[in-house]
Amino acid sequence: MSDGRSERAQAKREETRRRILDAAETVFAEHGYHDTGVAQLVDAAGVARGTFYQYFDSKHAIFLELLDDLLRRFRASVVGVDVAAGSGTVRDQLVETVARVLRAAATRRPLARIIFREAVGLDADVDDRLQAFETELYRYVHGALTLGKSLGWLRDHDPEVVATLVYGGLRQLIDRRIVRGDDGPDALERVAAATVDHHLRGLLREEDA
Amino acid sequence: MSDGRSERAQAKREETRRRILDAAETVFAEHGYHDTGVAQLVDAAGVARGTFYQYFDSKHAIFLELLDDLLRRFRASVVGVDVAAGSGTVRDQLVETVARVLRAAATRRPLARIIFREAVGLDADVDDRLQAFETELYRYVHGALTLGKSLGWLRDHDPEVVATLVYGGLRQLIDRRIVRGDDGPDALERVAAATVDHHLRGLLREEDA
Amino acid sequence: MSDGRSERAQAKREETRRRILDAAETVFAEHGYHDTGVAQLVDAAGVARGTFYQYFDSKHAIFLELLDDLLRRFRASVVGVDVAAGSGTVRDQLVETVARVLRAAATRRPLARIIFREAVGLDADVDDRLQAFETELYRYVHGALTLGKSLGWLRDHDPEVVATLVYGGLRQLIDRRIVRGDDGPDALERVAAATVDHHLRGLLREEDA
Amino acid sequence: MSDGRSERAQAKREETRRRILDAAETVFAEHGYHDTGVAQLVDAAGVARGTFYQYFDSKHAIFLELLDDLLRRFRASVVGVDVAAGSGTVRDQLVETVARVLRAAATRRPLARIIFREAVGLDADVDDRLQAFETELYRYVHGALTLGKSLGWLRDHDPEVVATLVYGGLRQLIDRRIVRGDDGPDALERVAAATVDHHLRGLLREEDA
DNA sequence: AATGAATGAGTTTTCATTCAT
DNA sequence: TATGAATGAAAACTCATTCAT
Q1: Mutate to test the interface with B, among A98, A198, A206, A208 (most CBs of B within 10 A)
Q2: How much is the pTM?
Q3: Which SS3 state, helix, strand or coil, does residue A143 take?
């Protein structure tokens, strides 16, 4: 059957799958997991009930897959950029990194809403994903801290606690200013700078400050 | 009307009400709002289904009431203590305050679990409560910041952002170290100190640091 | 709560349970397991959908319970009667026994229909019940054969095979003449006699025949 | 029209049809009608869903056709052999006939399983087929009985009842010893003999016995 | 003729809430 | 006032069948 028939079918499958997933992102973001029914998902995707179940085992399964998807995208736009690669001062690089995180959340509000609000306290599976995500971000922060410390830029500190504070602060910023609020993109730069400055002054060795 | 009979009845009513609320705290904390059925609530409280509905309008209503209850208690053990009243350095007072917050969460894990995990992203009503709670804590932090600033102890900063970072950091600490983890009470003091130090070094004027 | 309230509740429960079970007997007998929906069961019983599930875990569960019920009743009206107790010749006693079996089936056609038609090949659970039932009847037959043999009335034979033939013959009689057909009660006596005679002549020693 | 092309196409059609039917026999025998999905049928046959519906109108239709097929084969290996044609005593010929029936069932267990377990109590259509099958076997038995009676070998009896007993006995033997059990082929001969002997001693006139 | 993605009616099951006792 | 049996709307999920390619 290499007459291209199965290839086209494959492509169609992929497209339908994407359509359902995309629709799900919007609907879950708007109503949350529990207040979203499969009915709304298929309505939004423009497919029949049965079609949905050809692609996903359950409502829970598509949520998990969507979450993986979103976390992957989020990570891609945050991590994966060499901290030391950019030009400018360390502080400016950090500001740009934080700004990148905030921008990633701002340009895809549904994504952020799902990750930071709708997926909290859902169940063990979801928790595992989120935990892994946090750990990854933590490591990223930790990497930066370690680098700065080894270069003698940062004073001594408990990285476990500080990483938690940094992550928690970012999380809260996204939750309040982006998911709930309507900060414009220009505000983000300012917030990013304020954030970095707040944390940095506490991390830089006094004589550097 | 105010005879002994109605007084006793009144007292009994109040007691039953309390029993149901207490049971609800445990059950909601363990299973979350959606995975808790009215059946579990009445079983845990040891009352009949119908009795439950004589005290509370709905499952949603009791959750809201419980949440109010918990938030009230949390506030009481955190705020309501004069920052300037204690003795010792400002830093030590702040450490004690943060430690008090963490302790409040640690000694009542179910409470913290409900506030920070199960009630997130539930619905508009719950969101309002949480928002009000955060605002209150924010004001508390803000008050301290303002005081410190007016006394010349703290450098200039964006209080909106910093308050968000501080709150977010605490929230995350509670979530990771208390709700999920099992930090002992002694660890809390250490974490509180690290937290305050982290934030303070960034807030204190350089010459004070 | 020994004010009689719970007793009446208990009684009500029992009655509702019976009503559902009775309705189920009729409906399952008429349409079979697969063509019967829970909708039909609750309609026939005159209860709400939810009520059904307060008493039975699933459609499958009520079928199993019903089957147990029917098999119990069937056994009660067949076995449990001392073969040697009656008066008359052995042949007459056997005729009466077979007649009793046929009558038990004839007076409760839905019962017979479910046991011998609707429950065949359903699933492992049901199969186990039926197998146990057959085994019980087999033992009953076997007991009679052994008795007769020990008394010197019956010639030598393979009881495994003969019991299977006897059971299979009865099963088929019930299936054809009772479940499907409309033999009157008088016909049953005649059929019972013919059945016993057929089997007996083959089992009796030649000199007795 | 009758060119080589259409002939080959015709042959191919026939072959595909056969492949689907053969696969269906296996699958239906293993899982039963209701627990077999069209998905399993097409998977086992190695054709697409749509192809299946080009050959058969419905799942029900293919089951009916398969049943006809199986019943035809079963009859062919049972009936269609002249009772009087063989050599040996009547008793030996009967034993051979019963053995043939049992062997037919034993060598094609799926067939027997479908006929005697999965097709029972399915629906009216299926019931008709089975009834016709039973009637046919009944006539075969009846023919033999009549022959034997006219030749003065058999005593007087109610053929309706006896035919039912004989058929029911065979059915049960097949069900227990072949479909469920694992009697070896040698056991079949012994069982066939025991079966015939049991029935015969009851049918033969006393003086012949 | 063959394919397999799409369909949607139909099924089972849940659970917050009501109400007669 | 307390009880707990009854309710039924709503949810998730299945699967035989269709039809565009």
Answers
A1: A198
A2: 0.90
A3: helix
